[in-house]
TrEMBL record:
PANTHER family: PROTEIN PHOSPHATASE (PTHR47992). The gene is PPM1A_0. Gene3D superfamilies: Phosphatase 2C, C-terminal domain suprefamily, PPM-type phosphatase domain. Keywords: Hydrolase, Magnesium, Manganese, Metal-binding. It comes from the Eukaryota. Belongs to the PP2C family. This is Protein phosphatase 1A.
Length: 171
């Protein structure tokens, strides 16, 4: 029994009711508990797709949850953010192929940023660089360019240290 406060005034005894879905132990991969700051900028599908792609690269759940929070910051979330990720036996496991593809993507991004800045280093600010790269098809599902912003940012700061202070955490 739960003794909740009644909004209409006074106290009433009420039976605690729970509704929920049974777990599908064969197919469930993970459970995400997160604050509004996550859901304000990513849909359920985006969060799930992004976490699935990260689980194929690492089994470090702290790293994965930090990546989700950073990605949401880069997407412009201004609300409180916390996330708990619980994996079940059916969760994706790191795959050598996915790890190779992620490293290859980072290498491609490095080449694209270096070429863009080689051509237009003095006149291209970081936001302009991001806008120019945002339509590329390479980014992790659910995360988009925001998922690789830290990679792009580190290359930009290396090549344009004089503009490093102009790089903002927010879009």
């Amino acid at each position: 029994m739960v003794w909740p406060a009644c909004r209409g005034g006074g106290w009433k005894w009420k039976m605690h009711t729970m509704s929920g879905q049974d777990r599908d132990e064969e197919n469930d991969e993970f459970l995400v508990l997160a604050c509004d700051g996550i859901w304000d900028v990513m849909s359920n599908e985006d969060v799930c797709d992004y976490i699935q792609s990260l689980l194929l690269i690492t089994d470090d759940l702290e790293h994965i949850t930090n990546q989700v929070i950073d990605t949401c910051l880069y997407k412009g979330s201004r609300d409180n953010m916390s996330i708990v990720l619980v994996t079940f036996p059916g969760a994706p496991k790191p795959s050598p192929e996915a790890i190779r593809k992620d490293k290859a993507l980072n290498s491609i991004l490095d080449k694209i940023v270096r070429e863009a800045l080689r051509v237009n280093r003095d006149n291209m600010d970081f936001d302009e660089l991001l806008r120019g790269m945002s339509a590329l098809p390479y980014f992790p599902p659910g995360g988009g360019i925001s998922a690789k912003r830290s990679v792009i940012e580190s290359i930009y700061k290396e090549l344009c240290p004089q503009h490093a202070d102009s790089v903002s955490m927010y879009p």
